[in-house]
Amino acid sequence: MTPEERLRELGLELPEVVAPAGSYVPAVRTGSLVYTAGQVPMVKGELPVTGRVGAEVSLEEAAEQARICALNAIAALRAEVGELARVRRIVKVVGFVASAPDFYGQPKVVNGASDLLGAVFGDAGRHARSAVGVAALPLNAPVEVELIAEVD
């Protein structure tokens, strides 16, 4: 089953690539690696949830937002390589979580992204990862996710 077929099976549709909010591009390929820019959980040009996790945003809400970030990253990846069947491996994921000072569940938040990547890419979606707590993210987003993928 291709990643596109898995997306359909999951009832998901890739969104349009989120337009950059600054002087950068959504994805860059160098050799067999594609690096995506950090993706915030934009849905149709809007952030459905804002604030810091552990304060205004619950862990569960943040994990869902991380899933949306991963979907946006997959869209940027597909735009760069043409079709997701060209992805050999998701190599690395970095998740940034805007965190209240006493919130320590960053890995659980970023699991939202990791779990989606596994569901879409199967074993090729298993990756190394960092989950980092930060004071704030662009646009007051609760989470931001970037990834590195190996492609044919």
How far is the first residue's CA from the last residue's CA? 17 Å
Specify Rg, calculated over alpha carbons.
Answer: 14 Å
Average pLDDT value?
97
Strand content: 15-25%
| Residues in helix, % | 25-40%
Number of helices: 3
Order of H and E elements: HEEHEHEE
Shape: globular
Taking the sheet with the most strands, its summary is: 5 strands, mixed
Unreliable stretches = none
Q: Report the structural category.
A: alpha+beta
Query: What is the topology, as strand order, of the major beta sheet?
Result: 1-2-5-3-4
Count of β-strands: 5
Account of the 3D structure:
The chain is α+β, with helices and mostly antiparallel strands and 152 residues long. Helix content is 30%, strand content 24%. The protein has helices at residues 3-9, 59-81, 106-121; strands at 27-30, 33-36, 87-98, 128-134, 143-151. The protein has a five-stranded mixed beta sheet, with helices on one face. α3 (106-121) links the parallel β3 and β4 (128-134). The model has no long low-confidence stretch (mean pLDDT 97).
